[in-house]
Amino acid sequence: MKAVLGLENGEYIVGNGFGAEGSCTGELVFTTQMSGYMESLTDPSYAGQILMFTYPLIGNYGVDEQNFQSPKVNAHGCVVHEVCKRPAANKPLETFFEENNLLGISGVDTRKLTIKTRIEGSLRAALVTGDNSPEYAVELARAAKPISEIDLLPQVSIKEPYHIKGKGKRIAVIDLGIKKNIAISFRKRGADLHLFPYNAKPSEVEACKPEAIFFTNGPGDPAFATDAVECAKHFMGEIPVLGICMGNQILARAFGAETYKMKFGHRGSNQPVRHKDGSIYITTQNHGFAVDRDTLPSDCGVLFENVNDSSVEGIYSDDLDVYAVQFHPEAFGGPRDTEGPVFDMMYRRIP
User: Fold this and answer.
1) Which of 71, 98, 181, 265 is most exposed, with the fewest beta carbons within 10 Å of its own?
2) Is 243 among the annotated ligand-binding positions?
3) Pair (123, 244) in one structural domain
4) Across the beta sheet with 301-306, what order do the strands follow?
């Protein structure tokens, strides 16, 4: 099956389609991880994006559904150099894409395209399978909205509150697109989790009598998460306020700080971060927006920073009992360096 990936700058790449016939649009982004491809494809934070893997062979251990981070693939499309047709175990990625009406393209020089992305920044793109019309693909890419103009939270958040019962500390979770293993990491510590939609009001959250409130990861621009920011403001200084990924950005905005769109973001399982005490960890990351350090108020400090570009990777406030990280400590997929330290610290902060 023919396929073409069109870019908003007029360029295009012809390759081999896999999965279903059709078309999709989104922001083309790349991840440098070598494994955990299904964890990434099912990460709700990739909603609105076409995900490209820089590692040259994807699918060599098939589709491991037990490690899905949500019930479905959230990335709009998948771009690879080569897709493995005979995996060591499980269902082939191509078969899964066919059965679930998903779109992919292989035969792409992903490293060349990654270099282009690093130079020009993330581009709007369109993936068309079953057709190799470059003009059509480029036209679709140019017609797509920039991700900073799309509110993606309603697509990934729960519709109604629900409860994951535990015998430990009671945590209200504002679901902006939570990864499954974040909930699992809290549950390992005995947490009693009450999950709420992205637009939950403080009065709704207070009904569960939380001992802490946690803001999850999520897709797109945190500027759209106005309800979550207001909710964070309400609870700051009252109970511990925690966050991961977009949650870090939400809490920074609750302090009055600004966020900005990065040139091509941080995505992969090899991102080094430095704690304020000088120790360094290797982390999994997936974010295209970041906190503007210069706009943080004096009562909010930088907890972690990225070793490569010094961008903010975590914030904290002892006075207001706030603790958040930009990276993903839940270790799916990626290194386990921070799963223990970060989740233990969050849980210990709850009285």
Assistant:
1) 71
2) no
3) no
4) 162-164, 192-196, 170-174, 212-215, 241-244, 322-325, 312-317, 301-306, 259-275, 280-291
pLDDT digits (tens, 9 = 90+) for 149-189: 999 999 999 999 999 999 999 999 999 999 999 999 999 99
- Catalytic: which of 27, 39, 313, 330? 330
pLDDT at 230: 98
Domain boundary among 149, 165, 196: 149
Name the amino acid, one letter, at 145: K
Q: Indicate which CATH number applies to the domain containing 300.
A: 3.40.50.880
333 confidence band (pLDDT: 50, 70, 90): confident
Measured between alpha carbons, how far is residue 42 from residues 36, 66, 74, 138, 156 in Å? 10, 11, 5, 26, 11
* Residue 246 assigned ligand-binding role: yes
Residues 21 and 123 in one domain: yes
Q: Give the Cα separation of 302 and 297 in Å (integer).
A: 11
CA nearest to 79, candidates 135, 128, 147, 42: 128
Q: What is the CATH number of the domain that holds 113?
A: 3.50.30.20
330 in catalytic set: yes
DSSP 147-173: GGG---HHHHS-SS-EEE--SS-EEEE
* Distance in angstroms (rounded) separating the CA atoms of residues 324 and 177: 16
d(CA 314, CA 287): 13
138 and 227: one domain?
Answer: no
- Catalytic: which of 24, 231, 245, 300? 245
> In terms of domains, do 161 and 187 share one?
yes
Number of domains in the chain: 2
d(CA 332, CA 341): 16
Tokens (6 digits) for 29 = 């982004």
Task: Tell whether 90 is in a known binding site.
Answer: no
Please tell me whether 220 is known to bind a ligand. yes
Query: Do 138 and 176 share a domain, yes or no?
Result: no
Do both 122 and 159 map to the same domain?
A: no
Instruction: Give me the catalytic one of 8, 287, 328, 339.
Output: 328
Where is the domain boundary, 97, 119, 149?
Answer: 149
- For residue 182, what are the contacts with CB-CB under 8 A and spacing of at least 6? 216, 217, 244, 330
Q: Which domain holds residue 19?
A: 2-149
